[in-house]
Write a structure and sequence with these properties.
By secondary structure, the chain is α/β, with parallel strands linked by helices. The protein has 2 helices and 33 strands. The chain has 2 domains: 93 residues, no CATH class; 265 residues, no CATH class. This is DUF7305 domain-containing protein.
Length: 442
C-alpha cells in the first residue's frame, strides 16, 4: 500500500513537471509569434516604402528619358524646317504634325514614341511642341513636353553659297567662265582651277539658266525648288556644266540688307581734278562721286552707307588698302564707266563686300577694267558684269548676266563667311525653351 502510494506521488510529480514544461513551451511559442508579428508590423511600412521608392525611381528615370525624347523631337523639327522637308508632314500652313511611333535606342530597343507639332511652320517665328512618351504600367505612359520658340536671328546670313546666284535667273554670254578656288589655302592657280564654281537660281522658267556658246561652268547648276533642271536649263553648243544639274532642296532666301544705325552723317562726297584722298572713318553719305583721274584710298576698317549715287567716271580709282576690311552699303544707284578701277590690295575677297539695300533696285553695271577681289550681294538689283577682267569672289543679285570673255573665280572661303545683313538669317535657331509642367501625379 505504501509502495503504491509512493508510485502515485512520483507519477503526479512527473505529470506536473511535464505539464509545466508544456506551459513554458506554449508561452515561448506565443511570445515568438507575438515578436514575429511585431517585426512584420514594423517591416510592412518599410517594404511599402521600398516598393514606392522603386516605383518613384523607375518613374523618374522614365521621365528623364521622355524629356530627352521630347528634345530629340525638337531637334528633328528644326532640322526639317531648315531642310525644307517639313512640307511632307501632316497638316497645313498653320500647323504641321508628325508622330514617331517607335523611337529606338542605339541598341535598337524601342524607348517610346514622340508627338511633334509645329505652329506657324511657314512664319518667321514657328513654335515647336514635342512630347516624349515612355511606357510605364499597363497602358499608362510617362509624358514630358518641351515647347520651343524659334527664329532666324537678327543679323547674319550665309549669302555666298554659290559663285553666282541670280534670284530670277542667270545668263552666261559666249566664252564666259566660272570656276573656283579657296583663298584660305592661297592664291588662285590658273593651272589648277577648282570645280566648285556652282551657280544657282530660284527661278523655274525655261532658260532661267542660259549658257551661250562656249560658256563654261566648272561646278553644279541649280534651278528653283521642285523644278526639273534638265527641262529648263539651256546650254548652247560647246557650252559646259561640269557638275550636276540640280533642283534646290528649298527656296534660297534672299534676305534684305539693313545698314547699321549710328553711322556719322557726312553728306555728299565729291573728288575731282586728279586729286587723291584717304578715308579712315565710317560714315553715311548722300552721294559718293569720284571724277577725272582722281583716286580714293580706304586705309582702315570702315563701313560706308551711300544712300544716293555711287559714281566713278573714266580713269578714276577706288583703292582698298592691304589688310583692311571694308563694307559698302548701296541704297541708290551704281554708275561705273569704263577704265575705272576698284582695287583690293589684299587680294582677299573676304575683306571687301558691296551690299545692296531694298532701295538699290536698278541695274548694277560693272565696267571696271581691273581685276577685282570681293563680293557683291544686291538682292533687288540686276548685275551686269561687263568686264573682261577677272573677278575673284562671288556675285548674288536679282538677275545676273556675265558678259562674253568674263571670268569669275568663286572663292569657296566666302561660303563659310557670315555676312551681317541686319535682317533675319536663313536658318532657324532656338529663341526660347521651356518644359510644360505635367499634370499632378503624371
Amino acid at each position: 500500500m505504501n509502495f503504491n502510494k509512493e508510485v502515485r506521488k512520483v507519477k503526479g510529480k512527473l505529470f506536473k513537471n511535464i505539464n509545466k514544461r508544456k506551459e513554458e513551451h506554449g508561452a515561448v511559442l506565443v511570445i515568438g509569434v507575438l515578436f514575429l508579428t511585431f517585426l512584420l508590423l514594423l517591416a510592412i511600412p518599410f517594404l511599402f516604402q521600398i516598393s514606392n521608392e522603386r516605383r518613384m525611381s523607375e518613374k523618374s528615370y522614365k521621365a528623364f528619358a521622355a524629356l530627352s525624347m521630347a528634345e530629340a523631337g525638337v531637334e528633328r523639327a528644326i532640322w526639317e524646317l531648315n531642310s525644307g522637308d517639313v512640307y511632307t508632314w501632316s497638316g497645313s500652313s498653320s500647323l504641321r504634325t508628325m508622330n514617331i511611333a517607335s523611337f529606338l535606342t542605339s541598341d535598337g530597343e524601342t524607348m517610346g514614341s514622340i508627338d511633334i507639332q509645329i505652329e506657324d511652320p511657314e512664319g518667321d517665328t514657328p513654335v515647336v511642341q514635342s512630347t516624349g512618351k515612355v511606357p510605364y504600367i499597363g497602358t499608362l505612359t510617362v509624358d514630358r513636353t518641351a515647347r520651343v520658340e524659334l527664329w532666324k536671328g537678327n543679323g547674319s546670313s550665309y549669302l555666298f553659297g554659290h559663285g553666282v546666284f541670280g534670284d530670277e535667273g542667270i545668263e552666261l554670254d559666249s566664252n564666259a567662265q566660272i570656276d573656283s578656288y579657296d583663298s584660305s589655302n592661297g592664291e588662285y592657280d590658273p593651272n589648277n582651277p577648282g570645280a566648285n564654281g556652282d551657280i544657282g537660281t530660284n527661278a523655274t522658267h525655261l532658260g532661267c539658266i542660259y549658257l551661250s556658246a562656249n560658256a563654261r561652268v566648272y561646278g553644279n547648276a541649280s534651278t528653283g525648288f521642285e523644278s526639273i533642271p534638265e527641262d529648263i536649263i539651256i546650254t548652247k553648243p560647246v557650252s559646259t556644266i561640269s557638275g550636276e544639274k540640280l533642283a534646290l532642296s528649298k527656296p534660297q532666301p534672299m534676305p534684305s540688307i539693313v545698314p547699321p544705325e549710328g553711322l556719322i552723317f557726312r553728306g555728299d562726297y565729291f573728288l575731282d581734278g586728279g586729286n587723291q584722298d584717304i578715308i579712315i572713318e565710317s560714315g553715311e553719305y548722300t552721294s559718293f562721286r569720284i571724277q577725272n583721274n582722281s583716286k580714293v584710298t580706304i586705309a582702315s576698317d570702315v563701313t560706308l552707307y551711300i544712300t544716293g549715287e555711287l559714281s566713278m567716271t573714266s580713269n578714276t580709282q577706288l583703292e582698298i588698302a592691304d589688310g583692311v576690311n571694308v563694307t559698302i552699303y548701296l541704297g541708290g544707284s551704281f554708275v561705273q564707266e569704263s577704265n575705272t578701277q576698284i582695287n583690293n590690295l589684299s587680294m582677299d575677297p573676304t575683306k571687301f563686300v558691296f551690299l545692296g539695300t531694298d532701295s538699290f533696285n536698278g541695274d548694277m553695271d560693272w565696267n571696271s577694267n581691273s581685276d577685282f577681289w570681293g563680293s557683291v550681294y544686291v538682292p533687288r538689283a540686276n548685275v551686269n558684269y561687263n568686264s573682261e577682267a577677272d573677278f575673284y569672289g562671288a556675285v548674288s543679285g536679282k538677275f545676273v548676266d556675265i558678259c562674253s570673255q568674263a571670268t569669275l573665280h568663286y572663292d569657296e572661303a566666302l561660303g563659310d563667311l557670315k555676312i551681317k545683313t541686319g535682317s533675319p538669317g536663313d536658318t532657324f535657331i532656338v529663341k526660347s525653351w521651356h518644359e510644360l509642367v505635367p499634370p499632378v501625379g503624371s
